[in-house]
Write a structure and sequence with these properties.
Number of domains: 2
Order of helices and strands: EEEEHHEEEH
Largest sheet: 7 strands, mixed
Strand order of the largest sheet: 1-7-6-5-4-3-2
Helix content: 10-25%
Shape: globular
Distance between the termini: 48 Å
Radius of gyration: 18 Å
Number of helices: 3
Structural class: alpha/beta
């Protein structure tokens, strides 16, 4: 049976990474009281989530600026992940929604299943949060993603600490330094 984790509303929501750049593991985590739900994610999912939250808040602000809060309104809270990190599942599909009646954004994540497995057996997590909580998480997630390896200005690939052989240089020059 698939599990459903419905934290409505969350008392805390964050994204984070553990490990050295290039070897990091990314998470999205929410808490409601003493219940903590951690999801294992890909870096690109965390980056897309942050961008999606900002876009959704922009759309809400166009309709009713008071409901979305101020763009500079961030909560002054600890955004670190709660230990121990025990993910309930690896996130596959993720989406965002908005409950206008309660002025809450919802992050819906579905478990990534092995190929060929019926999606009806996938667990789901729903994290309901205020616009300020989501904006704070989005800005923090953007910082977490950006704190990894720098990217090559020529090809956009990550640069390792020992350098990077850029295909746009056709191998004719030294590695691009960090």
């Amino acid at each position: 049976m698939p599990e459903v984790y419905d934290l409505n509303p969350v008392t805390h929501i964050t994204a984070g990474a553990v490990g050295e750049p290039g070897q990091r593991t990314f998470y999205v985590q929410a808490r409601q009281g003493s219940q903590v739900v951690t999801l294992l994610c890909e870096k690109q999912q965390v980056a897309a989530l942050a961008m999606g939250i900002e876009q959704l808040l922009e759309q809400i602000a166009q309709k009713d600026p008071e409901r979305a809060g101020r763009p500079d309104e961030l909560l002054d809270i600890d955004m670190s992940l709660d230990e121990p990190l025990e993910p309930v599942f690896r996130a596959g599909q993720m989406g965002l929604g908005y409950d206008e009646e309660h002025n809450l954004l919802v992050l819906v994540a579905q478990e990534l299943l092995p190929e060929g497995q019926d999606t009806e057996t996938a667990s789901t997590a729903r994290f309901w949060a205020t616009p300020a909580q989501m904006r704070t998480m989005a800005r923090h997630a953007t910082q977490v993603v950006a704190s990894g390896r720098p990217t090559c200005p020529l090809c956009g690939a990550p640069i390792d600490p020992e350098g990077h052989f850029c295909p746009r240089r056709n191998g004719h020059q030294q590695p691009v330094p960090l």
